[in-house]
Amino acid sequence: MAKRTLVPRTSNMELISPDDSTDTTVNDTLGLPQFDENTVTLRGFNKRVSDNYETFFVQNNSPFPISGITVSLRYTDTGGTLLHERTLHIPCDLQPGQSRQVSVNSFDRQHLFYYYLSGKPRKSATPFQVSARLMGYDIPIRRSN
């Protein structure tokens, strides 16, 4: 029986590096922060061949609460050939510094693929790799009492 870990390795999700043009200054007209690639950390991806969901951890590194993220996921085989690509909005209420595991429906509806670090299955299946790019995050603005 293959050894399973409850929490997958935390550095196993390849993050696409931010553009050099990323501006982290404050928007002068509204006083709101600009997009910052480092505001959210994505880690610990997991998807076994029999799973209907893909799971990973989201951590809020900002001083603001976050109510959701938008992430682009790119799936490739171990040789680098593109299998699938998608962009998802994921609701997740996170206070500053908080981390949470999130689940999304798997791109693999036929159970033919498994994440290469999730352990080799007994049945024949194709391993894949995934890279993630943070596209946005939601900072809720609420009425004060």
Features:
5-stranded mixed beta sheet; 3-stranded antiparallel beta sheet; mainly beta; disordered N terminus; single chain; 8 strands; elongated; Immunoglobulin-like; 145 residues
Can you characterise this structure?
The chain is mainly beta. It has a single domain, classed as Immunoglobulin-like (Sandwich), CATH 2.60.40. Helices cover 0% and strands 45% of the residues. The chain has no helices and eight strands. Strands 1, 4, 5, 7 and 8 form a five-stranded mixed beta sheet that branches. A three-stranded antiparallel beta sheet has the order 2-3-6, with no helix packed on it. Strand 2 (40-46) and strand 3 (53-60) form a beta hairpin.
Give the domain tally.
1
Main structural class: mainly beta
Q: Could you please say which CATH topology applies here?
A: Immunoglobulin-like
**Named CATH architecture:** Sandwich
The first-to-last residue Cα distance is: 56 Å
Total of DSSP H or I helical runs spanning 4+ residues: 0
Low-confidence stretches: 1-11, 20-26
CATH class: Mainly Beta
Concise structural overview:
The protein is mainly β. Helix content is 0%, strand content 45%.
Q: How is this fold's topology laid out?
A:
Elements: E1 14-15, E2 40-46, E3 53-60, E4 66-77, E5 82-94, E6 99-105, E7 113-115, E8 126-138
Parallel strand pairs: 1-8, 7-8
Antiparallel strand pairs: 2-3, 3-6, 4-5, 4-8
